[in-house]
Specification:
- This protein has 312 residues and is α+β, with helices and mostly antiparallel strands.
- The protein folds into 2 domains: 8-179, Gyrase A, domain 2; 196-303, Elongation Factor Tu (Ef-tu), domain 3, CATH 2.40.30.160.
- The protein contains 5 helices and 16 strands.
- It has helices spanning 30-35, 85-94, 117-124, 170-179, 216-224; strands spanning 13-16, 20-26, 50-56, 62-72, 75-81, 102-105, 110-116, 132-135, 138-146, 149-157, 230-237, 246-249, 258-264, 271-278, 287-289, 298-300.
- Strand 9 (138-146) and strand 10 form a beta hairpin.
- It is globular.
Length: 312
């Protein structure tokens, strides 16, 4: 399979991200409450810092993933997949109990944009991954670069003017999201993965010394006992992958060898996908999308090492 690459000049501008939503946790106990629910060390999150975090079930499976930042002392923003926002807000609110904390879905009040490339760099005034700053009425959250393209999330009031940048193609943004190697849980993949299965701890989404949260024992056991047998890998394909779609190995057509986590089909390149797969399936044979007769997957390098001996 020939792999074609998108040109960097296609990745410049701003795009409204309708597939993202914003939750707000506020109140005197907001930090302590989130500390007991999420995989990130929320209490240690300082003004000007953002972080990746997960929300797990009691079985250690990710219900959602967040980009979270401290808005002020008693308020946090939590960006997540829009198709999970209502269910996640409801579930978090169930566990507030007597804590002085309120969790609201403020997605109708705040819009999310993806910014990328030289024009965004000039407008934002600089880039340092996982740092936040205010740009007028907007919050800018610098994300890890992808294919040497700088990226930001821009969160701004719904009645504000959009960022004064060229229009960025939505699929171009999704391509960068996949190529960054930072996974995002969506409705189709909720409760499918323990964090390590999608490299969540490798990209800073899990803090192992922060204390208890739902599923913490399972996550810790996966980290410290035995070898991790499943990991998220970057692939190219000529098919049309989608999150939640199963991946099959040529040597075992009867059962899936993995699942698509995130995917993008940008016109300037073949489709790219992040898929969680059995590491043993990488040793021989071929992987295919949807069935053993489906489009083949070609492994591509992730922007960070996978620290699993033979599969690094």
């Amino acid at each position: 399979m020939a792999i074609t690459a998108a040109t960097n000049n296609a990745f410049d501008g701003a795009v409204r991200l309708t597939d993202w939503s914003l939750l707000r946790a506020s109140g005197a106990d907001a930090a302590a409450f989130l500390q007991g629910q999420l995989t990130q060390d929320i209490v240690a999150l300082q003004p000007g810092q953002a972080g990746l975090s997960g929300y797990c079930s009691a079985k250690g499976r990710l219900l959602a993933s967040f980009v979270v930042w401290r808005v002020r002392d008693e308020e946090f923003g939590l960006l997540c997949s829009a198709d999970l926002a209502a269910a996640v807000r409801k579930r978090l609110s169930m566990y507030v109990l007597r804590a002085r904390c309120r969790v609201d879905d403020v997605s109708t009040e705040w819009l999310v944009f993806g910014l990328a490339g030289p024009s965004a760099t000039r407008w934002s005034g600089g880039h340092e991954a996982w740092r936040t700053r205010q740009q007028g009425v907007a919050w800018l959250i610098a994300l890890p670069a992808a294919e040497h393209v700088l990226r930001w999330l821009c969160v701004q009031p719904a009645d504000a003017q959009p960022p004064p940048l060229p229009v960025l193609d939505a699929q171009a943004w999704r391509h960068l999201e996949v190529m960054s190697g930072v996974p995002r849980i969506v409705a189709a993949t909720a409760e499918q993965f323990v964090p390590q299965m999608i490299n969540f701890e490798l990209v800073g989404g899990v803090h192992f010394q922060k204390g208890c949260y739902p599923g913490q024992e399972v996550v810790a056991r996966s980290q410290y006992r035995g070898t991790i047998k499943r990991r998220m890998i970057l692939f190219a394909t000529t098919g049309s992958p989608r999150p939640g779609q199963e991946v099959f190995h040529s040597g075992d057509p009867a059962q899936p060898a993995g699942m698509v986590v995130n995917a993008a089909a940008f016109p300037a390149s073949d489709a790219r996908l992040l898929a969680e797969v059995k590491l043993a399936a990488l040793d021989s044979g071929t992987l295919h999308l949807g069935s053993v007769d489906g489009p083949p997957l070609q492994r591509l390098p992730l922007p960070y090492p996978i620290v699993d001996a033979a599969h690094a």
